[in-house]
């Protein structure tokens, strides 16, 4: 087992060396993660209102100025990252778990079960998510929990489709047939043989779905359906910035840039992870 | 002689139909008759070869035999007990006694598992041995198939095709089975490696008293390894015979055509041999009508061939054929 | 360089061809200095196991090797003209007109969105400058020639409506559309069933005679070579181990590899005997060792074999072999 891990780590390093943009993306993500975790080190509490310094431009005291309530904008962006990442990761966990479960079951069992599940996927994906989310948020009180649930519960369909397609091809491989013909129990066949084979797909799907969740959260917050004051996320900061776009355009740049870079980095990360988790199938 | 032999496998009127994927609303359900009313038996300790062209249902027959597929109807007697309708739990003791070796040395081993984990799989299912004891068994079996103890830590991609096939064989033999289904087990290997694997299978057979069902399309290899051979055409066995007799005195026109189509690695014989090349190709198993399936390509087809499906007849001793000519 | 008669008659001459792959880390020499010629009107068989470089070799001649491969050296003379330094465009022209190729997998070689006939028509209009109407008539004629029943309706069908054997026939028709001088067949029957294989081999033989072209037939199946070829190259690890007429190779093989290969196959005719496999497995092309490539698996290997590559020795006007064991004119069989 140790050999397996070492090999993975080595492959990971090789891949990073080969793929420079991916390496930068990874460094950026680690940075964002660290910053979000250590955001409390900032000298300003994120929601301390200071009416004496409203809408100040960037200065030595306030690197990115202050917002219309005099809160330090940089600090709010750091805390916003925390919210955005939390939403991204938790929503991804919900959405990929459902997606992998539905996809594996659908692909492995086929027949009626497959038909039923895939048609449900079609139905759910055919509803424009913005409408769906608007309706759902009427029932749930808008906020962090609601947005995680909403994103998690309505974005698993593409993962399910990907995993299903992968499972369909994996279940016909001869090592799966062998396991079945040897009387391996169903859960073990799935855990030992099917899941590892769909793992690369799953990894890519999950990094992409973090990126998507962050984007969705931003969009929802921008529309006022997501994170509510006094909490801030990058999306809700963009919404605030909108009102002051005329006199303080930099307020839109910081959260906007963070969203773009984070989303891009997650997508790149998916690429290298895929290369690492995919096994070599031949010696050549 | 033959009367004293014990039958390990006896198949009676086995059928395996696959429903054709139809749209949600269409009413008439079409089926592919992959295995259609097949009966034969395999004696203990012998090698039974199953030959036929792609799409004739030989692999499906093998997979139905070890209940990878559920048969549509018919009997599969394993050592006197019908296993055709057993559920998974009841099958478990039989699964320990029959194992399978697959064709593709690339897809038959899980690339995420190392050799130890791969061979451990059947041991974990079917024995109560501790992990350390299982490791000993794996060491022994690796040695038997000509691999080293150090290979246990390696992953499938680190081996050549022939070595992978050895791992597949080791996995099948780890739990001391009685019956092995070799599903095109050597087709993907190079000529010089095929011979290595065949010799090893022969040695293991006498050493472990194994019974083989050897499914293949390479007739010369099948003739070499088998005691008796069944020839399949479109879901039916059309001829069963001892392997030498089949090659010297093939009865069914299809068997004759199949044999004369084998390219002989001997230029003078190849040039002198009158090759009866059958025309046409395998008809689709969906559009099956009445009568003999081979009649569309058969040079000897008579009117009766279109009406009556020929039944298996005993010609002499252990030679059976399903053809109206006999 | 062979005798003079041969040179005159030869259609294709290949001298010291070398091709290597580069996978970023290491260089793999796949074709390691190959000399051979194809004479007018013969069927030359190239036999070898997987990894022997037989496919890459002919692809190097045609200039259709993958991007990470490179032809390092070699002269290729087609009908008296050097073609190794031609531009891509000129090579493409040769591929359409002078040399045609058929591949192993008839399933992937045809475009599923194009009718079988359109493949032919496109080729005929492009290379032979026919009008569409003429081309269609010619396409039907070609399909008839390769033994496709009712070609008038088949010409308008899509590849998925054809079986594997029929698709291979369509590919042969495409290869013959421009009456090439040389047809290169890369394992054309490996994916087919024996009865269909027999049909295709028969067809190729017939067409070769009728059109008086040369054929290079690549295969790993010794039975197939014996059936259709007149001369054989035996390849191993990127080198030609032995070359000779079909009877010389089968009845008096000189190289231990050729002999071992012939011994390792079961015979349908004759008595059943235990097979004699070749020990070990094909060498890795990544770190090539000194000496004869077959030395590691050879039962007659001597110290010398691991140090230097043997020279070719000639046994007849047509047979030569690369081995220390055999002297010129020697017979190893006893």
Oligomer: heterotrimer
Order of helices and strands of chain C: HEEEHEEHEHHHHEHEHEEHHEE
User: What class do helices, strands and sheet pairing of chain C give?
Assistant: alpha/beta
Q: What spatial form of chain A do the alpha-carbon principal axes imply?
A: globular
- Level of helix content of chain C? 25-40%
Mean pLDDT of chain C: 86
What gyration radius of chain A follows from the Cα positions, in whole Å? 22 Å
Total strands of chain A: 0
Main sheet characteristics of chain C? 8 strands, mixed
What's the helix-strand series of chain A? HHHHHHHHHHH
Span of the ends, CA to CA of chain A: 23 Å
- Tally of helical segments of chain C: 11
| Helix content bin of chain A | over 70%
* Largest sheet data of chain A: none
Mean pLDDT of chain A: 82
Describe this protein's structure.
With 284 residues, chain A is mainly α. Helix content of chain A is 73%, strand content 0%. Chain A is globular. Chain B is α/β, with parallel strands linked by helices and 326 residues long. In chain B, the strands form 2 sheets. Chain B has an 8-stranded mixed sheet with strand order 6-7-8-3-9-10-12-11, sandwiched between helices. Chain B has a 4-stranded antiparallel sheet with strand order 2-1-4-5, with helices on one face. In chain B, strand 7 (179-183), helix 6 (191-208) and strand 8 (211-216) form a beta-alpha-beta unit. Chain C has 334 residues and is an alpha/beta fold. Chain C has 11 helices and 12 strands. Chain C is globular, with a radius of gyration of 21 Å. The two termini of chain C are 30 Å apart. In chain C, 46% of the residues are buried. Chains in contact: A-B, B-C. The B-C interface holds B 53-54, 160-163, 190-196, 198-199, 202, 217, 219-221, 223-224, 244, 247, 257-270, 275, 277-279, 281-282 and C 49-50, 163, 165-166, 193-199, 201-202, 220-227, 246-247, 250-251, 260-262, 264-269, 272, 274-279, 281-282.
Keywords for this entry:
heterotrimer; A: 284 residues; mainly alpha; B: 326 residues; alpha/beta; eight-stranded mixed sheet; 23% strand; globular
